[in-house]
Amino acid sequence: MSDDADTSPEVMLRFYKMLYPFQSIFTWLNHEHTPTKLFTHREFAFTLQGDVYLRYHSFNTAEDLKKQVCTLNPTRFEIGPMYSAKPRDKKTVRSAAFSPQRRELVFDIDMTDYDGVRTCCSAADICSRCWGFIAAAVKVLQSILVEQFGFRHLLWVYSGRRGIHLWISDPEALDLTDDQRRALVSALTVVEGGKEMVKKVNVRTAKGLPPLLWDALDTLRSAFGPLVLDDQDCFSSQEGWETLLQLIPDRPIVEKLRNEWSQDPDRPSAQKWEELKDLIHKKKTDVQSRLKEALEDIVFQYTYPRIDAEVSKHRNHLLKAPFCVHPKTGRVCVPLDPNHIDRFDPRDVPTIGQLLRELNSSTSRGEVAGWEKTSLKPYVDLLDRHTMGILEEVRIMKRNNTTW
Amino acid sequence: MFRHSEIKNFKPQKRTLTTSESASTAGEYPYRLNFYERPPLFEVTVEDFEECAIDRLRILAEIESSYARNRTWEELKEVTGKLCRKYLHLNSNQTAIGHINSQEQRKRDHLGHFVLRLAFCRSEELRRRFVKAETTLFQVRYEEDDSLERIEFVNSLNFGWTKVTSADEKGSLEEELKALQVKQSTSSDNYVKVHWTKVPDLVAKRRVFLRGGFAYVSSQEISSIIFHEFESRLEKALEHTAKMLPRMDEDTRLVPILNNLSQGFLVGIPSEWSSAPSSGDEVRAEMIDDMAKKHFPLCMRNLHECLTRDRHLKHFGRLQYGLFLKVLGLSIDEAIHFWRKSFSNLTDDKFNKEYKYNIRHSYGLEGKRANYPAKSCQQILTTDKPSVGDCHGCPYRHFSPENLQSSLLTHYSSQGLDTTDLHEIMRTVKDGHYHVACTRVFEITHGRKGVKKGDGIGGGESVTHPNQYAARSIEIEKEQSQEGTAMAVVVD
């Protein structure tokens, strides 16, 4: 398995030459089959060996992009916005005439932001167990963005190690201004405050929980038990249940539980949670409802998506292109189906080493792209199907705009 | 927005507005509020052109500095409202005494807005600042407006929203909608449906219910749509104007005015400080040193320090400081005395030959005998930039950050400014709000005399002129000593 994570320049070059689906990426970004500004005016940035960073590249066709990628052989490359001029002409146009225009609405969720609540691993590590947090995040965001914000073309992409990216390609999403992006992100940001802030969820108004989060609460409630209580066992350590107790605004309950739990600390989290709920049920109705709200906030604090807001707020932010290879893990950043997000295991993602072996041992010949002969195929197909949806919508829009 | 023909019409003619003309356009401004959709098509004089714009600019500059100084919305509203009443009052239809009067006010409002569009469309930075200030002004006026007239105004505009009328739709969302109502209200509450991108601030605060990309906005929150619409329409209009602007470059009368206006935004608006205060005690040469330490803004303290240290000042330094002292109240005889004493290295002969004439000249006693006004912050900031060996200019702009900090501490620490204040001041300086930094220093150093943050140099106004700074400082001291005597009497 050791050569799976081999991302040496020779291996990378072979990957770009034989496997990377440039044509699919082109069509996905371009929204049509013939090159539009969405591709030709799009910024690409390359990270070369030794962390050399090259910005403001742009290309006329998928072939151009492939040629340059194979020449530079970057460890990865990123995709930015469509500018008002070709990014490669940046130095020759007036700075006022060079500004970001359209851009997919993007999100980045990184497992490191969950370090306060996950118990299985920390920092750069990820296992199938902590993927549960990502899965919950995907379900919540998918539902809010589709049902409430009305977006239709969402592409989820595994980031190669410890996170997930989301690209929304609806024409309306591309047109969003920075202000609108900021507004959307701030509506979606629920878990706030730094390390030193114990209670990180403060979204209630005098009228209670905003309707925006109603569905999310239902989803997360059902995820909370299996994920936080059973799998992560978040309240088993003293530190764990102390954090929980600090979030309960009721002195008697907190003292009673602290007493019991420190005498018998080995109770599983689920039992502790039940005991807490029981005590709350015995309270008077008005106190009870306040405490129930506190429980809901705890559910949010442990499971609500933690978005890296800066990525989504500005059109000119760059994000790693799908199907790049993560330099540390050798895993390919593949698109994911949000409906099967629970079954996804980061360890199953094809690595560059594995793909090249498959390519070598493949017997099929003929005029098919390299990736079709490997286990990369289902993932590229997923992207292509997603792109078909965008193309169809753009075609209809164009037809409606044509007056005969 | 600006078609060529409109720009042509816009060119001011050498003719004043006559009452008959304005009467003929009566009814052109049915509402106090204006979305400024159409450019003014009437004729104006060059003077009116500039005056309307400057009056408006005073208000916008104050709004900007309110933001830079973190005033609350209520404070901002009060300060802006006060200035509006002074410079650009708009009567509501009800309070308008004569119809023509309110039409005339609205016409000026309309004209001022469009002149400033021309001045501020030329760079991204200016556009952004102008849009923000204008939108705020609109909000302030909107909130002040009579509610009935406001509704009429809103109905006169087309926002592309749909009213949620069908009982079905309302019924199915009742629970969600109820959870968002600001006040307790009845089921007859009206909602409009707009795309969420039209109400980003409501979305950001989760104050609207969203379904399929549409936001359900209750009638109480409709203002948010209106403000956003105002902002985005103005942004687009300014970009259009910017594209048309090159055609105006040949107009030698307007371009300097417009340039001047856009520079004015940098520093707030100059007040008229061209002559010494008529009343008050005479300022004598010996008093300057003491006054400098108590009342002068940093630029003048710096000049004073340089003069004392080097026993000399270069030309522009003498000009900036000399005119300031003149307006402060130093008579010509005292001025000659002061400068003679200060230039103690010079022989009488050299002083009389090379400097006396200039001093008398600046007092309007030689040459073309003009009464030169003291330099405003705008002039200090933008003209005659200091070069090597010069001491004039605005320290907030022309000093390196390190020098500025140490200079602030040397000059002001005895008056209550300490290192903890530096951060805030330096941040404002970094953003280019030099007059705001200066105003803040004024507030800090007069804190002991009861000046609070946001008070500025009285009524929340910012420093726009060094003499205004000094005059206010002296005034505060006088008020204090009067109160002091009054107190003493009571104690007796």
TrEMBL record, chain A:
Listed A to Z, the keywords are: DNA replication, DNA-directed RNA polymerase, Metal-binding, Nucleotidyltransferase, Primosome, Transcription, Transferase, Zinc
Which GO biological process entries does UniProt record here?
A: DNA replication, synthesis of primer
Gene Ontology CC annotation, any one = alpha DNA polymerase:primase complex
The enzyme class is transferase
Q: Does the keyword Nucleotidyltransferase apply?
A: yes
Enumerate the Pfam families for this protein.
DNA_primase_S
Any one GO MF term held by the record is:
metal ion binding
Does this UniProt record's set of keywords contain Iron? no
List, alphabetically, the InterPro entries matched: DNA_primase_S, DNA_primase_ssu_euk/arc
| Source domain of life | Eukaryota
- What Enzyme Commission number(s) appear in the record? 2.7.7.-
Q: Which NCBIfam families match?
A: primase_sml
**Could you say which protein family the record assigns here?**
Belongs to the eukaryotic-type primase small subunit family.
State the name under which the record lists this protein: DNA primase
Q: Which organism is it from?
A: Pisolithus tinctorius Marx 270
TrEMBL record, chain B:
Q: Name one Pfam family in it.
A: DNA_primase_lrg
Residue sites binding [4Fe-4S] cluster per the record = C299, C377, C394, C438
Iron as a keyword?
yes
Functional note = DNA primase is the polymerase that synthesizes small RNA primers for the Okazaki fragments made during discontinuous DNA replication.
Q: Which UniProt keywords apply?
A: 4Fe-4S, DNA replication, DNA-binding, Iron, Iron-sulfur, Metal-binding, Primosome
Q: What is the lineage of its organism?
A: Eukaryota, Fungi, Dikarya, Basidiomycota, Agaricomycotina
Annotated DNA primase large subunit C-terminal domain ranges read 290-469
Q: How is the cofactor bound?
A: Binds 1 [4Fe-4S] cluster.
The Swiss-Prot or TrEMBL record describes its family as follows:
Belongs to the eukaryotic-type primase large subunit family.
Entry GO CC: alpha DNA polymerase:primase complex
Q: Name one GO molecular function term.
A: DNA binding
Name this protein carries in UniProt = DNA primase large subunit
